[in-house]
Each structure stands twice: as C-alpha cells, then as structure tokens.
C-alpha cells in the first residue's frame, strides 16, 4: 500500500509520447543500453545497442526526447505528481523544485492546506494525488455548507480504497468510490467540528 505500480504495466509509457526511448541498465559493474521502439509493423521492440564495463552504481536511466514546446508542461506535471511523494528521483538537466503543500491542520487520514493554484481536493493513494471532482459526489444536507473548504482538502488512502480509471490518471466514480469519498468527507468534517 505504499506505491502504485507493479507487473511492469508502465514500462512502455514513453511510447505514448515518442516513437522510441533509451534504457540504460547499470548492474554489477556493467552498463547495457537498449532502444525501445515501435516497429514498422506497429509492434513494440527492444534492441540491445551495446554493453560495457561501468563504474556507475546499480540502477536504471530512462531517456526520452522531449519537444522544446512541451518542457514547461512536463515540469508542471512532475511538480504536481511528486508533491505528495517523499521518494524523489534524481532530476537531470532541470532544476526541479517540488513545493510541498502548506499544511494548516492535519492528522494521519487527511490534511487541510492553504490554497494553491489548482484549488482542488485530492486523494493520495500510493503516493499519487488524484483530483476529486466534488461535483460527482453528494454530501448529506447537514454537511453541504462544509464544502466551501473542499478546495483545501487532501485525503490519504490505501491502494485499492477507491477505483481508478483504466488510464490510472483519474478516479473512476463508481458507487463504491463515491460512498468512500462521502464517508471520508463526513468523518473529517465531524473531526474538525470536534476541534472547533
């Protein structure tokens, strides 16, 4: 329940942006370089380019060519993605500043932060923040007046507590996800009322 991912599902994600990318695998004093690409037959192919001794520590480096016009969008996406993640990768070629939320009040299950540019509620699951569309959930009438702070709220959840869209980039608003979110809002509002 610490991180989203597994089974290699995202291993070809760069191909959704470019037709090829490079993988450098550093292991046991060697580096092996691979090219991953889409063939003329529209198949995903992996070719070993070469292997040689290396003094680099073990790890993986993935390189994807980025169009200059897309760099700011990539930076914004990375800054949002890693906002709630304490395990940051090493960023190369860009002075990446990951601004953490300014917390006003919190506990282990939720936090209320000062407003940011997005002014959205989030649920963090597996260190990934998914925006909550509050228009798709209905709170009981007694809690409707609490929604004015909804742009400040972040919930923390275990992997699997809510459903994800098949793209894994947003929530799937199934009945069980909506019920879970409503229950979380109500529990948090009650806890806040007890503090006031």
Short description:
With 196 residues, this protein is of the alpha+beta class.
Structure description:
The protein has 196 residues and is of the alpha+beta class. The protein is 16% helix and 28% strand. The protein contains 2 helices and 9 strands. The strands form 2 sheets. Strands 5-6-9-7-8 form a 5-stranded mixed sheet, with no helix packed on it. It has a 4-stranded antiparallel sheet with strand order 3-2-1-4, with no helix packed on it. Strand 5 and strand 6 (110-113) form a beta hairpin. The model has no long low-confidence stretch (mean pLDDT 85).
Helix/strand layout:
Layout: E1 20-27, E2 30-38, E3 44-53, E4 59-63, H1 71-81, E5 103-106, E6 110-113, E7 121-125, E8 128-132, E9 153-157, H2 175-195
Parallel strand pairs: 7-9
Antiparallel strand pairs: 1-2, 1-4, 2-3, 5-6, 6-9, 7-8
Determine the strand fraction and express it as a percent band: 25-35%
DSSP helix count? 2
Spans with pLDDT under 50 lasting ≥5 residues? none
Distance between the termini: 32 Å
Largest sheet: 5 strands, mixed
Number of strands: 9
Gyration radius (Cα, Å) is 21 Å
Which structural class fits the helix and strand makeup? alpha+beta
Shape: elongated
């Amino acid at each position: 329940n610490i991180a989203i991912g597994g089974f290699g599902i995202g291993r070809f994600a760069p191909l959704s942006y470019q037709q090829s990318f490079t993988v450098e695998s550093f292991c046991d004093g060697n580096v092996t370089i691979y090219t991953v690409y889409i063939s003329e037959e529209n198949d995903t192919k992996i070719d070993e380019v070469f292997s040689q001794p290396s003094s680099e520590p073990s790890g993986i480096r993935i390189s994807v060519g980025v169009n200059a016009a897309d760099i700011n969008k990539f930076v914004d996406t990375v800054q949002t993605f890693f906002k709630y993640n304490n395990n940051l990768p090493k960023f190369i070629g860009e002075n990446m500043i990951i601004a953490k939320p300014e917390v006003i009040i919190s506990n282990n299950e939720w936090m209320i932060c000062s407003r940011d540019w997005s002014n959205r509620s989030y649920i963090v699951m597996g260190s990934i923040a998914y925006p909550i569309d509050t228009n798709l959930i209905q709170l009981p009438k007694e809690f409707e007046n609490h929604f004015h702070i909804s742009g400040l709220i972040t919930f923390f959840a275990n992997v699997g507590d809510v459903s994800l869209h098949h793209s894994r980039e947003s929530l799937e608003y199934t009945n069980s996800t909506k019920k879970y979110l409503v229950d979380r809002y109500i529990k948090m509002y009650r806890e806040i009322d007890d503090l006031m």
